[in-house]
Amino acid sequence: MNDAPREQWASRMGFVLAAVGSAVGLGNMWRFPYFAAENGGAAFVFLYLLMVALVGLPIMLAEFAIGRGSKKSPIQALEYFGGPAWKPLGVLFVLGGFLILSYYAVVAGWTLRYAWQAVVAGFGGDLGAFFGQAASGPDAVGWHIAFMLVTVTIVAGGIRGGIERSAVILMPLLFFIVVGLAIFAATLPGAGAGYAFYLKMDFSAILSFRVLTEATSQAFFSLSLGMGAMLTYSSYLSRDDNMPRESVIIAGSDFLIAFLAGLMVFPLIFALGLAGDVSEDQIGALFIALPGAFGEMGAVGRPVGILFFFALLVGALTSAISLLEVVVSAIIDNWSWPRRRAALVMGVLITLAGIPSALNTNVLGVVDQIAGNLILAVGALSLAIFVGWVMPDPIGEVRKGAEGVRWLPVWRAFLRYAVPPLLTVILYFSVRSTIGMIRGLFGG
Question: What domains appear along the chain, each with residue ranges and CATH number?
Fold first, then answer.
């Protein structure tokens, strides 16, 4: 067990930017706009914000309370407040981070490959064949390894020297790129049709149980909850940080970037005549249709393509850093390994675990369903029960540094009575979907 003094963030802003980076990922840059357009536009955005308030913020604050209160990584933190019986939940968090990063780094490797292609040659030729080569096989394995190498290097640098330093540089850069591309997209002919598609108001969607489930799932997973990332990051906080304030800032920033990404993507798609590609296949639109359109835009297409895929890459990298930190922090706390050794060994193991996903996109889809949906839903549901009913005085812990906050009893009541039913519904649909995907993979 590691008894060395725990690292701390150098500044409040460093923590906030790192936590926002954990939340902002490929799901924000592409999945959120796509889901909004396909599920009622502004109605989906409204439901998403509602679910952030009802589910996302309570779970995030619960992770903060456990992390800062224990000053430990997930396994030891759950044992600290709940005894040995709750250690398996911490193990589940670490396992979830391990598995999610194993396939997430494969998809991130695709974005690294495309960013490199945009820089050195631009896009042209048979982009369907190019994506097929990039998405699976030896090329996918190579770029997967390259992305993991960058991630391991940053995490090995420590909280201040690696994670915080990268977040302070990368997150403002990501914001300015997304805003710049959104402004550029607004000047293109046909941009108005993109806005109309993205933000149409379908009032019937508000009453749709399916859309509500999608919005809850997106709100929950886009905030990096249920995998121990926020718990781990908050374990490096000081006692006087205002965690309710930080949770609102993080959730708001995560939504802002996701919303701006839609203002960037859909005007581009409609201006370039790609609306049919989006409705047929969101992955195809992202990695085949859009690059092809960049190649046909003339001189401006190449820099736009570089910025677009660099923004995707930054979002992927900041999320990957937090996933690896969950695993590395647990190894340091439980086995007393030096940080660099823990980052290197676990990085190698995660890279090896991701190779099947790099070789076969069907495997990637199943692992995503199991780890990215099922494990996270189980973890978050257990977390809500733990902080709502088991953890001694979570309100007292959150109130440190936030003495003026009056709504903390309401927060705990939500964890007890509102969040578990909602997450139980999400879990039910996750189980059904996972069983279906596993049967499909094995021909059942």
Answer: 12-441 (1.10.4160)
